[in-house]
Amino acid sequence: MRGDPVGLETYWNEDPSDTLRVRQGFRLDEVSTSATPGFDGDKSDAAESLAEGSLILAELQEKLYAGAQMGGDPRRVLLVLQAMDTAGKGGIVKHVMTAVDPQGVQVASFKKPTEEELAQDFLWRIRKELPEAGMIGVFDRSHYEDVLIARVRELAEPDELERRYEAINEFEAELAASGTTIIKVMLHISTDEQRDRLMKRLERRDKHWKFNPGDIDERMLAPMYREAYQVAFERTTMPHAPWYVIPADRKWYARLAVQHLLIDALDAMKLDWPVADYDIEEQKARLAVS
Amino acid sequence: MRGDPVGLETYWNEDPSDTLRVRQGFRLDEVSTSATPGFDGDKSDAAESLAEGSLILAELQEKLYAGAQMGGDPRRVLLVLQAMDTAGKGGIVKHVMTAVDPQGVQVASFKKPTEEELAQDFLWRIRKELPEAGMIGVFDRSHYEDVLIARVRELAEPDELERRYEAINEFEAELAASGTTIIKVMLHISTDEQRDRLMKRLERRDKHWKFNPGDIDERMLAPMYREAYQVAFERTTMPHAPWYVIPADRKWYARLAVQHLLIDALDAMKLDWPVADYDIEEQKARLAVS
Questions:
Q1: What residues contact residue A93 under an 8 Å CB cut-off, 6+ apart?
Q2: CA dist A125 to A130, A175, B101, B196, Å?
Q3: For A107, which residue in chain B has the nearest alpha carbon?
Q4: Which of A61, A103, A106 to mutate to test the interface with B (most CBs of B within 10 A)?
Q5: Which of these ranges, A31-45, A90-104, A157-171, B9-23, has the smallest mean pLDDT?
Q6: In this predicted complex, what is the ipTM?
Q7: What's this model's pTM, rounded to 2 decimal places?
């Protein structure tokens, strides 16, 4: 279906899986929110590249799904999306994941926990939404809220926060060991860009439902959130559960980058169509006379 | 967004919501599987019409979702897809539902029940997958299997089957009363067309995973399945839970027809963007100085 190695589709001159990956010594405050690292094109080039990637992604996803349906391949993918409001999580779900058969995608949005959820360990509600074998699971917010907003808003004691980083690492190690490829993404926008996007939501009647007065309160705490992200990166970046920070002031770049991370992850799984577990010629003969 | 009344987009000369609806006196054995009732075009016209409908469907779905997010509108849609193997349920999910934001769609596939599921009432596993407020739920197979395969394969006693029709009617009445618009679709293909499609699955390496030797066994029972469908239509067609039988030998027609049923159902809900539950000017002022 394509001749180039993954990571080198049109206009990419670096592999975003390398470039955007959080490594030892990473500092969030040194990351530009408006850059387009590794991509050598503009918005219209990006549209072309996204369309190209959609076909690749769709085929890889179908192989992932097929493997679980026949042959019992236990593998699956979990894409975790974290960001401040308006950074574009919803747009990624809409513009990247629509390329894929809805039957093979499970989207879970984690809002403010309910009373029932608060009465349980913080991972309880997360476990219920994990993707099954063959699926791509997308978390719109996640268990990381429990060390982000929980830290900034002091919703948990310092000891409990400490425990949670460890619990997250154990949890993700367990997922990885049972066949889950984990991709953790933070979409990074500037406070100015966020103001513009929130203003747009206030100006457009068809966007009012996306705004909540609490979004401004959260916005005022942006510096504290950045610190909390920095700590989360330092405590929970693992070879089997990497973090990627994606400059997101340009929506088209963020979408393309996430699509690319997904393609790379699926490609690394060396997926192929499963081998028939029945005798093909025998079944053809049966079918012909049926 | 469009000037024509719903049901009269390009190439449609009748409203499929009328034409395809199961009514008193309906006989499945009188329905052509290869016709394209109400549609005045060919495959390429259909592609154009599907693209047009996708934009309409996407906007309606976003309004449905928005209403639940702000304003607490409890309404939702449940699309039930039933058919013999290869009739195109999966293709409908893929080609109709990809138009819609994945965040607003829940697809549930009901396979052979597990031990745990069999130990419960047949509606137990169904209830767990019902769409939440604002969502479009799609059932790939459904509780109707419990009066279709269960009848044909004698997996339940006659008394229990009788009870199930009633239980289904009560269940669907309850869903409708709590704000669910129900659309029940049977995709209808000929046995010849089914043979061709199964053969294609056997001939193509990338389709082998979609084939199961049991598909041929089921195929041999097609006349009995048609009878079971006929009974199901007679027993469970209700004003709030109508059945539609869609000729499906032409995939492009079936997809377009289902898209149209969805559009009509959403249009009839008179959806609009929810009204802001905050003071817009006050929030603009707060945001400007944040």
A1: A81, A107, A138, A140, B101, B102, B103
A2: 9, 15, 23, 45
A3: B103
A4: A103
A5: B9-23
A6: 0.91
A7: 0.94
Phi, psi of A10, deg, nearest 5 = -45, 135
Q: What is the pLDDT of residues A72-129, one digit of tens each?
A: 999 999 999 999 999 999 999 999 999 999 999 999 999 999 999 999 999 999 999 9
DSSP-assigned letter for residue A290: -
Residue A75 one-letter amino acid? R
Residues of chain B contacting A287 with CB distance shorter than 8 Å: 195, 198-199, 202, 216
Concatenated DSSP letters for A243-277?
EEEEE-SSHHHHHHHHHHHHHHHHHHTT--PPPPS
Give CA–CA dist A91/A167, Å, rounded. Answer: 30
At residue B183's C-alpha, the angle toward residues B52 and B170, to 5°, is 165
Residues in chain A: 290
Chain B residues whose CB is inside 8 A of the A205 CB are: 273
% of residues, chain B, pLDDT over 70: 97
Is A162 touching B (CB cutoff 8 A)?
Answer: no
User: In CATH, what number does A16-288 get?
Assistant: 3.40.50.300
pLDDT for A12: 87
Please write down the long-range contacts of B173-176, taking CB distance under 8 Å and 24 or more positions apart. B173/B238, B173/B240, B173/B241, B175/B78, B175/B130, B175/B241, B176/B240, B176/B241
Instruction: Look over chain A and give the mean of its residue pLDDT values, rounded to a whole number.
Output: 95
Tens digits of residue pLDDT in B2-38:
444 444 456 888 889 999 999 999 999 999 999 999 9
CA distance B69 to A100: 25
Check CB contact under 8 Å for A287 and B99: no
d(CA A268, CA A181): 10
Side chain identity at residue B207, one-letter code: K
Contacting A residues, span 96-155, partner chain B, CB-CB under 8 Å: 97-103, 105, 107, 109, 138, 140
Q: Contacts of residue B290 in chain A, CB cutoff 8 Å? A: 195, 216, 219-220
